[in-house]
Amino acid sequence: MRYEIIGPLAERFDEVLTPEALEFLVTLDSEFAARRVALLDTRRARRDRFATGQLPDFLPETVGVRADPTWQVAPPAPGLTDRRVEITGPPDRKMTINALNSGAQVWLADFEDATAPTWDNVIGGQLNLMDALDRRIDFTDPRGKRYALGEELATIVVRPRGWHLVEKGIVVDGRPISASLVDFGLYLFHCARRQLAAGAGPYFYLPKLECHREARLWNDIFVFAQHYLRLPQGTIRATTLIETITAAFEMEEILYELREHSAGLNAGRWDYIFSIIKNFGQWPDFVLPDRAAVTMTVPFMRAYTELLVRTCHRRGAHAIGGMAALVPSRDPEVNETALARVRADKQREAGDGFDGSWVAHPGLVPTCREVFDAVLGERPNQLDRRRDEVEVTAADLLSVDKTPGQVTEAGVRSNIAVALHYIDAWLGGAGAVALWNLMEDAATAEIARCQVWQWLHHGTPLADGGSVTSDRVRAMLAEELAALTEGRGDAERQRAEQAARIVEETALGEDLPAFFTTGAYARHLGPRRRSVAAAG
To answer: Which of 26, 98, 135, 289 has its CA 20 to 30 A from that of 418?
Structure first.
């Protein structure tokens, strides 16, 4: 097979893109690319069935897996026994240092929702992880403040991009390679032994899975990769994000497929809600109220999180809670109110049996730790809390029509503003963006755009009077764009206008919005010229 590297080789990129590492990526592609494509076809066929009114259910063909009480996942791996606080963020140089120093047990180094997939971000992120494990990373900001690693560091867990994405910077036989395989393969090749030497291992978060067969593909990749790199089987561990409605019906099967390599499940929020709209948004029973009203305590979200804890603990797997996205404010009163909400959310999770939870900012680590310390004490987790009393049906998981709340003009405007500002920043190369005291990522933009599409599609009435119309949405978008571009130079104004076109095309289009990280929108971020070619 022939591979090509597209785009410039920046300083030290050759340390990541070595011939041996590239040969490993090409081998992974040769072994697994066809299965990936077939599974993506299965996703489309499943969505087509939902469009006819079919609804998901627990799979009859895997009832034996669910009914068998004997199987368990592997015991927690070194560095993953205690996960009471996990911090997330992109693997840029400053975030790498701050996250590792944050006091959290785990850092989710995110190549997915929190990283705009520019060539520099993708390869530079790998280099930063290598440097961090070698303890040769530092950073000095424009004000002269220097950042360096402390003594006690969080365990690194890498989140590669999802199966639906490709990496255009590496082309195999004329086609772009799977972004999942690039992020996974480069990190495993360069950092597995570095991690083992540090007393941990190569650990991953698996995003956007829609069924257990996709988990089986990952497991087969793990087995193959460990054999290729002469690593003991079971060295790799992976936590799966349950952030699609279809995966919620296959949690046990996902743990079963990955059991030798499983480190548990995580309960997302925005991507999970986005998945519901993406699959069932054309049906009136699935119209949701303002995004802020769709909390983790509404019936369908409560059913999903309760089932996740029960499923994990029944199988000896960690259950990790959702994101606290607050960015601490300098206003003490604002901060006190916001931290009270974060504390209440984490108390709910710890009380429900979760073993840990996510935060987006180092300033939230003490609050999350305090809550879980109060429940766990000296115990590393609460895997012994089985939650056998929980019973969740398919109807419970799909009870979207029981969600309280209304659609308001402020809710529509907030979605438009967040989508516009985030996509503008994303086109500029930033994947994690602080907006109105919240750390937003791609999942936020997806749910914001999808909700506007859904409300328009159904002509949803507004609590303030009138309804959601195309004219109203266009007017709001124009107002937000004018405010965003005020005082900007030509290049930044053009970028904002491109972001506005993305919001308008997807929110006002006939079809449900596709991921904005695919297709024409991602083309803006990809390498544009070929600078290095090599035969594999």
So the answer is: 98
pLDDT tens, position by position, 342-359: 999 999 999 999 999 999
The yes-or-no verdict on residue 535 having pLDDT over 70 is: no
Helix, coil or strand: residue 36? helix
| Strand ranges for 28-185 from DSSP E | 85-89, 106-110, 138-140, 146-148, 155-159, 166-172, 175-178
Helix, strand, coil percentages (3-state) for the chain, rounded to 5, are 50, 15, 35
Which pLDDT does position 524 carry in this prediction?
A: 56
d(CA 278, CA 245): 10
State how beta strands 175-178 and 166-172 pair. antiparallel
Give the pLDDT of residue 511. 81
Report helix, strand or coil for 351.
Answer: helix
CA dist 23 and 3 (Å) reads 9
Give per-residue pLDDT as tens, 55-79: 999 999 999 999 999 999 999 999 9
Right CATH number for 3-396 from 3.40.50.300, 3.20.20.360, 3.50.50.60, 3.10.100.10?
3.20.20.360
CATH of domain 407-524: 1.20.1220.12
Listed by start position, the domains of the chain span 3-396, 407-524
Mapping DSSP to helix (H, G, I), strand (E, B) and coil, where does residue 254 land? helix
pTM higher than 0.85: yes
C-alpha 151/C-alpha 149 separation (Å) is: 7
Distance CA 380, CA 383 (A): 9
Q: What is the pLDDT of residue 526?
A: 61
* C-alpha to C-alpha distances, 127 to 161, 263, 375, 531, nearest whole angstrom: 17, 25, 38, 20
Average pLDDT value over all residues in the chain: 94
Task: Give the pLDDT band (50/70/90) at residue 532.
Answer: very low
Q: What are phi and psi of 164, to 5 degrees?
A: -75, -10
| Ramachandran region, residue 328 (left: φ > 0; alpha: ψ -120 to 50; beta: rest) | beta
For the annotated catalytic residues, the residue numbers are 159, 441
**By C-alpha distance, which of 178, 130, 188, 109 is closest to 14?**
130
